[in-house]
Amino acid sequence: MMVRVESLEKHPELVPLCARWNFEEWGQPAGRTMEQTVEAFLGFLDRSGRQKALVAFASGLPVGLALLIENDLETHMHLRPWLASLYVMPEMRGNGVGKALIQATESVARDQGHAELYLYTSEAQYYQRFGWQELEPLTGADAGLVIMVRRLIRLAS
């Protein structure tokens, strides 16, 4: 399956859809409102901003989302930037959409000059397949989650 990944800033009409995916998966359980989520996604339309929302397309239709954000864990403010909110529509999982989104996010972070990219997950083995390494297990309320790092190799130009 051919997957194309583009920045949300090129597709402002997709803000409501991307915000809904994010809200249903993470926002609502965390106590955020849909309005707060839409407002946050409108911020990704700033072309000069370093935080990016990336949308995956298959057969011309949006099928997934990933975010490149400055920080995703208040306890680890020294680590930046983060791959966050990796989401693939359930019916599209297993078709390389997640891999395409991860690689696109890594590429944007590398283009911004970052040497490393971070995320946290309960699915470490999924990310290990793409070269991510476990950095630190989380404890307390976040027990069962692990911070992972991806070293972003600079390609010779």
Give Rg in angstroms. Answer: 15 Å
What sequence of helices (H) and strands (E) makes up the elements? EHHEEEHEHEE
Q: What is the β-strand count?
A: 7
Shape assignment: globular
Specify the helix fraction band. 25-40%
| CATH homologous superfamily caption | Gcn5-related N-acetyltransferase (GNAT)
CATH top level assignment: Alpha Beta
Could you give the distance between the termini?
Answer: 30 Å
What is the CATH third-level topology name?
Answer: Aminopeptidase
Put simply, the count of helices is 4
CATH architecture, please? Answer: 3-Layer(aba) Sandwich
Regions with pLDDT < 50 over 5+ consecutive residues?
Answer: none
Largest sheet, spatial ordering of strands: 1-2-3-4
- Give the class from helix and strand content and strand pairing: alpha+beta
Overall pLDDT score: 95
Largest sheet: 4 strands, antiparallel
Number of domains: 1
Describe the structure.
- There is one protein chain.
- This protein has 157 residues and is α+β, with helices and mostly antiparallel strands.
- The protein has one domain (3-114): Aminopeptidase, CATH 3.40.630.30.
- It is built from 4 helices and 7 strands; from the N terminus they run βααβββαβαββ.
- The protein has helices spanning 15-30, 34-42, 97-111, 124-128; strands spanning 3-7, 52-58, 61-69, 82-88, 116-121, 133-137, 146-151.
- A 4-stranded antiparallel β-sheet has the order 1-2-3-4, with helices on both faces. A 3-stranded antiparallel β-sheet has the order 5-7-6.
- The radius of gyration is 15 Å and the shape is globular.
